[in-house]
Design goal:
18% helix, alpha/beta
Length: 322
C-alpha cells in the first residue's frame, strides 16, 4: 500500500445506489414499512427512496429487474466545474465509458463509466432536493424531513465484490480521487479489501474479494442510524416482520462500526450501522493495515462471523453460490 493520495475535492459524497430486485413489491414494502425509508416518487420501473436526513430526492433507487444486485452507483460532484474536470480525467483513464445520460427523477445529467469488474458508476451535479409534504415536514429547520420511529438517518456506504481489489483501488483513485483509509493485507501478498473515502467520512465504499466467481456483484448496501440503540430496536422490528437476520448486532474491528446485517426479500444484503462520531480529519492519514492474522481474530466483539457473510452476494452466481 503506497502513501495516501491527495484528495481531489471534485466529488462531494456518495449520492445514491440503484438496487435491482426481482420481487419489487416485497422489496418496496421492506424498505418503506419495515426498514424505514421514505418514498419520494415512483415511475413504471423504479421507486425513489431516501432516509429521513438524506437531503437529496433519493439515495436508493429500487428497480424492477430479472435478478438482484446493484444497477449503478451515483456520486455527486462538488460543482459543475468539478464535474467537467472529473469527466475529462475519466475519459482519459482507459476505463470503459458509457457516456452521458439525461438523469432520472432524482437528478440531472450524469456521466457513466464502468470499473474493470462490471460495476457501473455515474457522477452528476444538478440534483433534486427532498420535497417533504406537510406531515413529513421537520420541526427542526436543519434536517431534511421529520424523524419518526427508529429509521436510518442517511445513506452511509456500499460494499462491492471484485476478483482483484488492487485493480479496483486503482480505478477508485483514478476516476473518483478516492483515498484508502483501511485495508486488508493477505499473507499471499494480495489485498483482500479496501475502504475508500472522498471526504472526511471514514469510508463511503468498500471493496472486498469475490469468492463466488461472480461478475459485478454487490456484497451489501448500508444506511447509518443516529445511535446504536436504533439498531437494537431495528432487530426487534426485523424479527417481528420475519426478516432474515444474517449476523449482528456486533462491532466491526475494521472501521469500528456497530452493525446488523439482514437480507431483504429478494436476497440483497442490507446493513444498518453506527460509526459513532468517527471521522478522518487528518490530511496525512496513513491507511490502517489489517493482516490476515488480525482478521482471523474476528470482529472487535460479538459472535463469530457467519459463513454466508463470505459467500453470499447478489446477483447469485448459481444455486451452489447463493
Amino acid at each position: 500500500m503506497t502513501s495516501p493520495i491527495t484528495p481531489s475535492f471534485d466529488i462531494a459524497h456518495l449520492g445514491h445506489v440503484e438496487l435491482y430486485t426481482d420481487k419489487f413489491d416485497e422489496s418496496l414494502d421492506f424498505f418503506t414499512r419495515v426498514y424505514g425509508l421514505k418514498l419520494s416518487g415512483q415511475d413504471e420501473t423504479s421507486a425513489y427512496l431516501r432516509a429521513w436526513d438524506d437531503y437529496e430526492f433519493h439515495s436508493l433507487k429500487l428497480t424492477r429487474h430479472h435478478t438482484t444486485g446493484v444497477g449503478h452507483i451515483g456520486y455527486r460532484a462538488t460543482s459543475p466545474e468539478a464535474l467537467a474536470r472529473r469527466v475529462a480525467i475519466i475519459e482519459g483513464s482507459g476505463y470503459k465509458l458509457h457516456g452521458w445520460t439525461e438523469g432520472d427523477m432524482g437528478h440531472g445529467r450524469a456521466f457513466r463509466f464502468e470499473d474493470p469488474f462490471g460495476h457501473i458508476f455515474e457522477i452528476y451535479y444538478n440534483t433534486r432536493r427532498a420535497e417533504p409534504d406537510a406531515k413529513d415536514r421537520p420541526a427542526l429547520k436543519n434536517t431534511a424531513s421529520a424523524f419518526t420511529g427508529a429509521p436510518p438517518r442517511r445513506l452511509d456506504h456500499l460494499n462491492l465484490l471484485a476478483s482483484d481489489v488492487s485493480e479496483f483501488r486503482r480505478f477508485m483513485e483514478t476516476c473518483l480521487g478516492s483515498r484508502v483509509t483501511e485495508y486488508i493485507q493477505l499473507d499471499s501478498g494480495r489485498i483482500g479489501g479496501c475502504w475508500f473515502t472522498i471526504n472526511n467520512k471514514t469510508y463511503d465504499l468498500a471493496c472486498t474479494e469475490e469468492h463466488g466467481g461472480g461478475h459485478a456483484r454487490l456484497h451489501h448496501v448500508t444506511y447509518a442510524t443516529d445511535q446504536r440503540e436504533d439498531i437494537l430496536r431495528a432487530a426487534d422490528i426485523f424479527l417481528q416482520n420475519g426478516v432474515h437476520i444474517e449476523t449482528g448486532p456486533h462491532k466491526h474491528a475494521i472501521q469500528g462500526t456497530f452493525f446488523l446485517y439482514v437480507w431483504e426479500p429478494a436476497g440483497n444484503r442490507v446493513e444498518l450501522a453506527n460509526a459513532g462520531a468517527r471521522l478522518i480529519l487528518a490530511p496525512d492519514w496513513e491507511p490502517v493495515c489489517w493482516t490476515e492474522a488480525d482478521r482471523k481474530k474476528g470482529q472487535a466483539w460479538g459472535l463469530k462471523t457467519i459463513e454466508t457473510f463470505h459467500t453470499h452476494g447478489t446477483p447469485p452466481v448459481d444455486k451452489g453460490h447463493a
